[in-house]
Design a protein that fits this description.
The complex is a heterodimer of chains A (142) and B (99).
Chain A lengths: L6 E8 L5 H12 L6 H22 L8 E9 L2 E8 L22 H9 L2 E6 L6 E8 L3
Antiparallel strand pairs in A: 1-2, 2-3, 3-5, 4-5
Helix pairs in contact in A: 1-2, 2-3
Chain B lengths: L1 E7 L2 E10 L4 H14 L2 E12 L1 H16 L3 E5 L3 H9 L7 E2 L1
Parallel strand pairs in B: 2-3, 3-4, 4-5
Antiparallel strand pairs in B: 1-2
Helix pairs in contact in B: 1-2
Classes of the chains: A alpha+beta (142), B alpha/beta (99).
Chain lengths: 142, 99
């Protein structure tokens, strides 16, 4: 398979913990098309799945919904951008923080992983019909 | 995720298999927590776990803490490369019992 230097793919997922494996499958499919190391692919899949999990857990607080979230993965000129769009509760940016690293307790780890893996994490207000728009970016050498 | 539990004397061994994410953490806790209460030592064999996210790591932390509270021990065995990477990313390799 010829490795692509530019990609732009998006998919909708029902906001549910049951969708997380589909989120991972989608991400793996997309990164299979790019010539980057497997370790980095695995990290990126983890970051994407953690962000999707945060939408289920926090934007929807684990409630059952038929709403969908959209994930868009784009790579252009060595810049990977992953966009997450949802219609859940607006994210309070002040409350988004990972746990302190010496504080051993469950919770807050997902955000910590995302911040370790990605170069930048930006929360924006979503454009209609979306409420939240999260953007993860990372420079990729390939 | 699938699992198998075997017993060796005072030790319960839980062989976990597949991907451990938010969707299966409750099931994982339902399997592991009663064993911690019942036995002196629980081994979690993670050889066949291909993927674990922060929710799975939370199960490992909660299991470790529950065992500590009860004066028991949870030991992680045959940790797959991908799970070890996530444990190290969480900087828990010095805190959890890696056997």
């Amino acid at each position: 398979m010829v490795a692509l230097r530019q990609i732009s793919e998006q998919r909708d997922f029902v906001v549910s913990s049951a969708s997380l494996k589909d989120v991972r499958s989608f991400s793996r499919e997309v990164f299979e098309k790019v010539n980057i190391e497997q370790d980095l692919k695995d990290e990126l899949v983890l970051a994407i799945a953690e962000a999707a999990q945060n939408i289920v857990k926090h934007a929807y607080q684990g409630e059952d919904t038929e709403d969908k979230m959209e994930i868009k993965i784009s790579l252009k000129n060595g810049e990977l951008e992953i966009g997450f769009f949802d219609k859940g509760r607006p994210v309070d940016k002040e409350n988004v923080r990972h746990r302190k690293i010496d504080d051993v307790k469950p919770g807050g780890l997902g955000t910590f992983f995302i911040q370790q893996i990605m170069d930048a994490v930006v929360f924006k207000e979503g454009e209609k019909p979306w409420i939240n728009h999260l953007i993860l970016t990372k420079k990729i050498n390939y | 995720m699938s699992y198998k539990v075997t017993e060796e004397g005072d030790v319960s061994i839980v062989h976990l298999d597949g991907e451990i994410d938010m969707d299966v953490t409750e099931k994982a806790k339902e399997i592991i927590m009663p064993l911690i209460e019942a036995k002196k030592e629980v081994h979690l064999n993670l050889k066949e776990v291909q993927y674990m996210d922060s929710s799975g790591i939370s199960v490992l932390i909660e299991s470790h803490q529950k065992a500590n509270e009860l004066g028991k021990k949870v030991i992680l065995k045959d940790i797959s490369k991908s799970v070890l990477k996530v444990i190290m990313m969480a900087k828990l390799e010095q805190i959890l019992n890696l056997g």
